[in-house]
């Protein structure tokens, strides 16, 4: 089961038309401060993606001098401290950011993800719920999925299932959640629920080696050998060289 949580990044669409990563910077600091700050933030994010953190920090500092209340800057600064492993710096950055932009759902989502990674589950869920309840927020599906994963990490299985369900209502295209729900039901020996969730996945997404193997596992656990052979036959036909097909042959389910 996947455990990754998703942060919201608003920065990458910013234009960096007047600067480059490898050449001499030509951002004109006398131009419109907010636009130049956005370019600096976008450049900082590009440096972070390349692991060049000193350059990222320099651009964030220049952006802060130009537009200290920019939401993109606040998000980027917190992500910078997270990526360099400075937990105290990230915490302080998020708290400062939320003082400046208390209604930012994106900030609360990212702060919630950060808190969950730090195993501060109750505080994390509080921030994530504040995010989804913000008016005009458009990322409820992603944030509810974050809530579900955080609940799973906290051992709150029922809450996780409820949040996964809400994520699907807000964003039906998050089809991988059906696999998560199937795995979760299988782990609790709720085989009918597991099979139904897997069927929902196959109704909206092409079968994968992983989903077919999950079908085998559910059927075997439920002592439905014929169903297991059905999934196994498709697995061998469509993905003969996959690790799942090799596992199927090794267990001699044929």
Automatic annotation (TrEMBL):
<dbReference type="InterPro" id="IPR019734">
    <property type="entry name" value="TPR_rpt"/>
</dbReference>
<protein>
    <submittedName>
        <fullName>Type IV pilus biogenesis/stability protein PilW</fullName>
    </submittedName>
</protein>
<dbReference type="Pfam" id="PF13181">
    <property type="entry name" value="TPR_8"/>
</dbReference>
<dbReference type="Pfam" id="PF14559">
    <property type="entry name" value="TPR_19"/>
</dbReference>
<dbReference type="Pfam" id="PF13432">
    <property type="entry name" value="TPR_16"/>
</dbReference>
<feature type="repeat" description="TPR">
    <location>
        <begin position="141"/>
        <end position="174"/>
    </location>
</feature>
<feature type="repeat" description="TPR">
    <location>
        <begin position="37"/>
        <end position="70"/>
    </location>
</feature>
<keyword id="KW-0802">TPR repeat</keyword>
<keyword id="KW-0677">Repeat</keyword>
<dbReference type="InterPro" id="IPR013360">
    <property type="entry name" value="Pilus_4_PilW"/>
</dbReference>
<dbReference type="InterPro" id="IPR011990">
    <property type="entry name" value="TPR-like_helical_dom_sf"/>
</dbReference>
């Amino acid at each position: 089961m996947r455990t990754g949580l998703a942060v919201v990044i608003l920065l990458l669409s910013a234009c960096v038309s007047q600067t480059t990563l490898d050449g001499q910077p030509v951002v004109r600091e006398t131009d419109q401060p907010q636009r130049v700050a956005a370019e600096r933030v976008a450049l900082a994010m590009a440096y972070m993606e390349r692991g060049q953190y000193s350059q990222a920090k320099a651009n964030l500092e220049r952006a802060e001098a130009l537009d200290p209340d920019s939401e993109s800057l606040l998000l980027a600064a917190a992500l910078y401290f997270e990526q360099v492993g400075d937990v105290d710096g990230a915490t302080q950055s998020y708290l400062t950011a939320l003082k400046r932009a208390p209604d930012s759902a994106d900030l609360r989502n990212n702060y919630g993800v950060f808190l969950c990674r730090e195993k501060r589950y109750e505080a994390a869920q509080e921030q994530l719920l504040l995010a989804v309840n913000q008016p005009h927020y458009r990322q409820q599906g992603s944030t509810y999925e974050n809530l579900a994963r955080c609940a799973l990490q906290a051992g709150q299985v029922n809450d996780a299932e409820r949040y996964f369900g809400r994520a699907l209502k807000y964003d039906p295209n998050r089809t991988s959640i059906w696999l998560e729900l199937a795995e979760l039901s299988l782990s609790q020996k709720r085989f009918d629920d597991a099979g139904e969730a897997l069927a929902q996945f196959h109704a909206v997404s092409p079968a994968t080696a992983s989903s077919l193997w999950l079908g085998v596992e559910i059927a075997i656990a439920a002592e439905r050998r014929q169903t297991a052979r059905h999934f196994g036959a498709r697995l061998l036909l469509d993905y003969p060289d996959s690790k799942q097909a090799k596992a199927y042959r090794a267990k001699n389910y044929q």
